[in-house]
Amino acid sequence: MTPSKPTPAAERRRQNQRPEGPPWRQQMYDVIFEADTPAGYGFDIGLLVAIITSIVLFSLETVEGYEDAVWIKNGEWFLTILFSIEYVLRLICSRHSFRYALSFWGIIDLFSVLPSYLAFFIGDSSRSLMILRSVRLLRVFRVMKLWRMMNEADELSTAIWRARNKIVVFLTVVLVAVTISGSLMYHVETLMTNVDEQKKNDTESDFTSIPQAMYWATVTMTTVGYGDVVPKTVIGKMISAALILLGYSLIIVPTGFVSAEILGGKAVGKEPDFMCDVCEATGHPVDAHYCYRCGARMHHA
Amino acid sequence: MTPSKPTPAAERRRQNQRPEGPPWRQQMYDVIFEADTPAGYGFDIGLLVAIITSIVLFSLETVEGYEDAVWIKNGEWFLTILFSIEYVLRLICSRHSFRYALSFWGIIDLFSVLPSYLAFFIGDSSRSLMILRSVRLLRVFRVMKLWRMMNEADELSTAIWRARNKIVVFLTVVLVAVTISGSLMYHVETLMTNVDEQKKNDTESDFTSIPQAMYWATVTMTTVGYGDVVPKTVIGKMISAALILLGYSLIIVPTGFVSAEILGGKAVGKEPDFMCDVCEATGHPVDAHYCYRCGARMHHA
Amino acid sequence: MTPSKPTPAAERRRQNQRPEGPPWRQQMYDVIFEADTPAGYGFDIGLLVAIITSIVLFSLETVEGYEDAVWIKNGEWFLTILFSIEYVLRLICSRHSFRYALSFWGIIDLFSVLPSYLAFFIGDSSRSLMILRSVRLLRVFRVMKLWRMMNEADELSTAIWRARNKIVVFLTVVLVAVTISGSLMYHVETLMTNVDEQKKNDTESDFTSIPQAMYWATVTMTTVGYGDVVPKTVIGKMISAALILLGYSLIIVPTGFVSAEILGGKAVGKEPDFMCDVCEATGHPVDAHYCYRCGARMHHA
Amino acid sequence: MTPSKPTPAAERRRQNQRPEGPPWRQQMYDVIFEADTPAGYGFDIGLLVAIITSIVLFSLETVEGYEDAVWIKNGEWFLTILFSIEYVLRLICSRHSFRYALSFWGIIDLFSVLPSYLAFFIGDSSRSLMILRSVRLLRVFRVMKLWRMMNEADELSTAIWRARNKIVVFLTVVLVAVTISGSLMYHVETLMTNVDEQKKNDTESDFTSIPQAMYWATVTMTTVGYGDVVPKTVIGKMISAALILLGYSLIIVPTGFVSAEILGGKAVGKEPDFMCDVCEATGHPVDAHYCYRCGARMHHA
């Protein structure tokens, strides 16, 4: 969250995006889009406070006793106007206003203010309450503005994007495991509860359907374990314990894969294939100029 | 899930498995077994949709209000026929039809369609309900078809297979820990609850037997923590907290072992297959010039 | 917790902090602040016992039946006097007594004894009970003294400090995810429960407000999963299961980042402090002969 | 669990422990203590079955309806006699019988049989029921025999032993965190519940004492999350959510440390300081005979 020396890539990107034209527009761009001037840093701090306040107000609205508090309504309008001004300023000082408006962040910025105005025009009639609520819910995307403020956001998005294959693999593995173990447990619990009922033991199975059993399996495999759906028969508990252990053992493997993906390209900070032409030593840092072994000049591909 | 450049090994395997004979059989093989042609990719997408739909229908059948829905029955039959056609086509265009039929995936493909036909022949008489249900449950293995569609499936299976020793170690450690801590807690809770009862404190121990206590220990050690079985006496809670911490500390170690196994062969800059031609030692650094075991010159591939 | 050979840095720091003046002051310093003499080691063991006893007494005070136990009160005063003597001795034998008193550990040492004296002067009148309680709570900081006794405390603090950016990133990611998924689930559960109510199904939503839903999301995403707030509608459970899986997949990424940060500087064979004399580049492989940045010959220490 | 080629160290240890004297004694030693002959492998399989059966019987004894089953009693005696024979045979064919009897595994083997005989002599009088139960509980240590059968047991014990410092650090960090957050939550929940009570909201705090609150903190920090103790006030939930996130972030750091410890010395399988005398290359495998870079003979320290 603190300003840091921009990387060359960020510097180049910035030069491409800086608007042309009058100096005031360039200065305004630096304040709003960058964080490495005192004014820009101050702007970011202000925005941070506004976003956090907005989330707090947004949440408080639904708490019993605060539904109709006037100060929340007023605060909400004050913040909407602030975010509107921010949106307009970003539009003005972007190099290509239209392109900004259609970009991911442009849409998020629009979503930050639109719901309040829409809710105002739809009115408070009880008939449109449902639509109103859904529209107002969109204000939650204001929290996404926090993401933009992180210096590491780019790096993190890249890492998630790079690990997308592994995440799909992970989700597929979980889906297969959840479906099979959910169906099995539904069958076992339904069967064994019926047997127990004949013994005048009047417990009822929590596994009322396969989707419910799959919900149980998801909650269990991720080790969340709410406890709202639990096996109640002895056989059910035994199979459940075995499934937990098996699932836990198997899930370590794809989890390790994702970690390996991140560690592979990151922690070690070395390019395994970055080889010295002279002595064929590998494993140089990505920014190496000289071979660490023979001292020869490195040639980047 | 997207087509990617096949590895040399996959390419070789494919050449071995491609059927001989008329070109239509080879083309059909490419569509059904491979994903790197437009038709093969389309086939895979279609199969993916069919599998997901099948799981949804299969689950919905057990939800209250949908048990006898006609559209589910019809959809089920439609999918069964689709999967039957797929099975027959795979049989036809495999190089060795019989070998395919007996392979793991051949059996899974058979299991995808057999239960529906069996259920049809067994009939809906209430007497055979239990057998019927168990048979129909086998349809869940359709979800395994998802696994085959993953490019990474091979890699993941290999990793799990390579980590099997570590998983057995992990399970043994857990079994020892679960047995000891379960028995201890059963003893403590039963004893202390009796003491409390004499003080007219009428709580009842959740630890009704050692298997129940072992179920508790499993659920706790894997950090699932349902909360259906919890210690209720003060001493029980203290020992339980100590066991949780101890178990948590100890479980990090085998978990780290499994991670190390995956990372060892993958992330860190060693080539597991970089083998010395003379003594067949493996695990050399990627930039090794000499075999560390016999001292012979290494030849890079 | 055992005495180990001090690192050169610790040795230098120690020389800077050792008091000047009469030998008895230097010897006392060695006993109290260091652990590598028999007397110093004994002092540390005694302190360890005192701290653990103090935590036990402090906790027992709140247990039903022990509130007014005289032996707890007496033990408490005994420990307070011990800690007071320790504080005074530390003040005396520090090189700069005033600087110690204002340091982090000086304040912790003061907090260890002040509350007891304050509580004595405030008196036991029922009116000031609340203030009294809050003041006495400060004694819990005695447990921080354990931290100082760890040899690894410095290393760990450094690691946490070095990973602070990653932790902020992690918290921001969680905050964004918690806000969005909490709001979504509040909306869905409230809506669907209303629909169910019209069907005479009288369950009540646990998601009474957005803060409550955000509490649920936090408890769920960290896989704690108390189960006091759970989705009860079918749609709610489905979305919840999807959110759990998504959140679990996404959280692996920043967790991996933090691990990578720790591993990056620690486990993998790089010496973070292996610095080039010419250009001061760090992070060379342990067997580097030439600086990878400027090509100068490296001199091993 | 399968026989594998013994490492040189294991081979040497074996030569030292093999008994002298008549060949039958040496052969018996190989069968009982080693697993690399068919007979020894068969012995191990038999022992494995006996241990698992013993655990099953031991657990079943406490299940309602099986307390007085004769077949369990008989099976128990049968196994006790088997284990007794095993113990005597181990005594006979050990090189130093007395040293074996006093070793860790010797004591475990004794504990496997002693309780049954003791229970027999103490008798079934209701007076000595408590002692009897505690004595019989000791049979649970039979499960430890599983540990000895693992090839990886040595390696794992070494890893745990090597990570003991990190585990102590981890436990200290958790103890500090648990004490501080437990006391804080006890204070907050007690206070806020009192405030709520004045509003006629008759919920009762789950945080009845500081030990109870510390139990909550332990269960929460390890992400077990039973849900038997949960915050019920709004402020309590907010602070609790903050503590969970903070605790979760902080706990990643020592967890990463333990992983780093394991990875550092293990996964990479290299000794960072194992340097070639000729070219000063480091990072050789621990069993390297030749330098991988210059091909020179390696000299082990």
UniProtKB/TrEMBL annotation, chains A, B, C, D:
Main location, first listed in the record: membrane
Gene Ontology biological process: action potential
Gene Ontology cellular component terms for the protein in this record: voltage-gated potassium channel complex
Region (Disordered): 1-23
PANTHER family documented for this protein: POTASSIUM VOLTAGE-GATED CHANNEL PROTEIN SHAB, VOLTAGE-GATED POTASSIUM CHANNEL
Recorded GO MF terms: voltage-gated potassium channel activity
Entry annotated with the keyword Transmembrane helix: yes
Record's subcellular location: Membrane
Keyword Ion transport part of the UniProt annotation: yes
Membrane topology: Multi-pass membrane protein
Keywords, alphabetical: Ion channel, Ion transport, Membrane, Potassium, Potassium channel, Potassium transport, Transmembrane, Transmembrane helix, Transport
Domain Ion transport: 43-256
Highest taxon listed in the record's lineage: Bacteria
Listed transmembrane segments: 41-60, 75-93, 100-122, 167-188, 238-260
The protein's name: Cyclic nucleotide-gated potassium channel
